[in-house]
Amino acid sequence: MTKPLLRFAPSPNGRLHLGHAFSALLTWQAAEHLGGTALLRIEDIDINRCKPEFTAAIIEDLHWLGLDWPEPVLHQSSRFELYGEAANRLRAANLLYPCFCSRSDIATRATGTDPEGAPLYPGTCRHLSNAERITRLERGDPVQFRLDTETALERTGLLTFSLIGPTMRDRPQIRYARPERWGDVVLQRKDMPTSYHLSVVVDDAAQGITHVTRGRDMEAATDIHVLLQMLLGIPTPIYHFHRLLLDETGQKLSKSKGSQTLADLRAAGTTPEDIRRQLGF
After folding, report:
1. Helix (H, G, I), strand (E, B) or coil at 25
2. Rounded to two decimals, what is the model's pTM?
3. For residue 124, what is the enclosing H or E element?
4. Please, which residues bridge with residue 8 across strands?
5. Phi, psi of 5 (to 5 degrees)
6. Beta pairing, strands 144-147 & 160-163
7. pLDDT digits (tens, 9 = 90+) for 35-46
8. Which own/partner pairs from 155-161 qualify as long-range (CB within 8 Å, at least 24 positions apart)?
9. I want to staple 270 with a disulfide (CB 3.0 to 4.6 A). Which of 81, 238, 241, 265 is the partner?
10. What backbone phi and psi angles, to 5 degrees, belong to 3?
11. Neighbours of 159 (CB within 10 A)
12. SS3 (DSSP) at 205
């Protein structure tokens, strides 16, 4: 029987806050309930924003919370070649196409929004001829590569995944994935040879992750991941979507909004036991 494996996978582009602490503690608690192991993974594909000092701070904060994990820690910035290989498999299957549209192009032509509220890509470059694609690629126009979601879904059919409750002891429920609401998502960005969606499914498979705990804000993105897992022939983990921690305005805690960090709390005299008690652990 496969030993349960979970992962906590922060991006080192800032300091951890209480929302991260909740997600990490829940992941380690779930691993304990399942009789498995929790891994730490550093998701640092954005090499311009991710900094070594933030990676060191993440490790310091998690150890302060009393958490530990097997070594070595996987760093995504060392795995771009593997993500490129996965993209090439999709390209060979005629499921990946070059897109030359700017954000303003998309905003002007979009007729709807994706689940995150961003303008929905209308598929403009999907209809370019091969000759035009080659001309623009050889000219060096800025390019990203998108998944042809409609064609992909024609090949995969109905997609499902398993959802489990917070105790991890409940019987999983079947959910239907709806990746079509995202349109043709970017899998290789203009500024890097991968994307969050592609790298996360490749690494979950490579590490043998059996259960994924993630915030409810990532529930819709899971539809994309299930589709990619099917296309790449890799396993789909069991998912659990946990609640989000909110600030006094009702917005979720985030690095970009300057939410109070664990380092700030520690400096003010807060103890790990205080954090665990506050978060229900």
Report:
1. helix
2. 0.95
3. none
4. 40
5. -130, 130
6. unpaired
7. 999 999 999 999
8. 155/231, 156/227, 156/230, 156/231, 159/223, 159/226, 159/227, 159/230, 160/226, 161/222, 161/226, 161/236, 161/238, 161/239
9. 265
10. -75, 130
11. 18
12. helix
Query: pLDDT category, 250, cuts 50, 70, 90?
Result: confident
Per-residue pLDDT tens over the stretch 158-167:
999 999 987 7
> Is it the case that residue 186 has pLDDT exceeding 90?
yes
230-242 mean pLDDT: 97
User: 260 with 219: CB under 8 angstroms?
Assistant: no
pLDDT digit string, tens, across residues 43-68: 999 999 999 999 999 999 999 999 99
For residue 120, the tally of other CB atoms under 10 A from its CB is 18
d(CA 138, CA 120): 27
C-alpha distances (whole Å) from 20 to each of 2, 120, 165, 191, 280 are: 27, 29, 19, 27, 14
Q: How far apart are CA 237 and CA 162, in angstroms?
A: 8
pLDDT value at 220 more than 80: yes
Element (H, E) at 145: strand 144-147
Supply the DSSP string of 57-96, one letter for each residue: HHHHHHHHTT---PSSPEEGGG-HHHHHHHHHHHHHTT-E
Res 236: pLDDT: 98
- For Cα atoms 240, 214, 225, give the angle at the middle one, nearest 5 degrees: 85
DSSP 8-state class, residue 261: B
